[in-house]
Design brief:
This protein is an alpha/beta fold. It is built from 5 helices and 13 strands. It starts with a strand and ends with a helix. The structure holds zinc ion.
């Protein structure tokens, strides 16, 4: 577990069990402590809770799921008594796919006894924690259920898997929607950008990801068939071919 302090009140926890970095972002706001994404299970989240307790004391915790993919929600197990926020489509996604994914990946990846735990506070457009200067908003892209979180105090955007390095891993056929979301990100009043599997980044990553998605839309992405992008890009092309039929 890598721990990095961000701004005045953020902490980025990064893990490598999946072979790529995967993030949990914690914001110690005025009223609540927010945990963005819960990774692979309760054993990891217990460590996060201990960290929060030692740094911030017995403050109330609010959990957020950026989207329903298994590598971002299994730690919900530990928070059945907390508020767990997500988009309405996120809960639907977990209801439809969560059990299958748990059976498929549990043995290899679960950290502790994962009990599928659904988000329990759902929204559709935006959700604002006024006193804490925190905004959550619907941002479909990587998936249909994706939300993003802005900490206005530290000017941080947590994008979930909408932003990836070096290029997005496409899991949607609605690329116009994805490009719109990324275009909207550019106009946000933020300086620091963190994705579900990225480093601590800045707006350049948004621009790079947007350029890529636009080029795929325009069928002008041959430049990505070589070099560091090759494997990701070819996997994306294969996925789109299989799902666009
Ligand atoms: Zn994902």
């Amino acid at each position: 577990m890598e721990i990095k302090k961000i701004g005045n009140r953020g902490t980025l926890f990064t893990f490598y069990d999946l072979g790529i970095p995967t993030n949990i972002y914690v914001i110690n706001a005025k009223r609540y402590v927010y945990i963005l994404d819960t990774y692979l299970g309760p054993d990891i989240m217990q460590q996060i809770n201990e960290y929060i307790f030692s740094e911030y004391g017995n403050k109330q915790i609010i959990v957020v799921n950026s989207h329903g993919h298994w590598d971002h929600i299994w730690g919900n197990s530990l928070y059945s008594n907390n508020i767990i926020i997500a988009h309405v489509l996120c809960k639907e996604y977990i209801q439809q796919n969560g059990q299958n994914q748990l059976v498929k990946y549990r043995e290899e990846y679960a950290k502790g006894n994962v009990v599928l735990t659904y988000p329990n506070l759902l929204f559709t457009d935006t959700l604002q924690f006024e006193e804490d200067n925190i905004l959550m908003f619907y941002s479909p892209g990587h998936t249909e259920d994706q939300i993003s979180v802005i900490d206005y105090e530290d000017k941080v955007l947590f994008s979930g898997d909408n932003l990836e390095r070096p290029i997005p891993y496409l899991m949607t056929t609605n690329l116009d929607q994805y490009a719109k979301t990324l275009g909207d990100y550019i106009n946000l009043d933020v300086d620091i950008v963190i994705g579900g599997h990225t480093e601590c980044e800045d707006k350049k990553l948004i621009q790079d990801n947007l350029n890529y998605v636009k080029k795929v839309i325009d069928k002008d992405a041959a430049e990505f068939e070589n070099g560091e992008y090759e494997d990701y890009h070819l996997a994306n092309m294969k996925w789109l071919e299989e799902h666009n039929r």
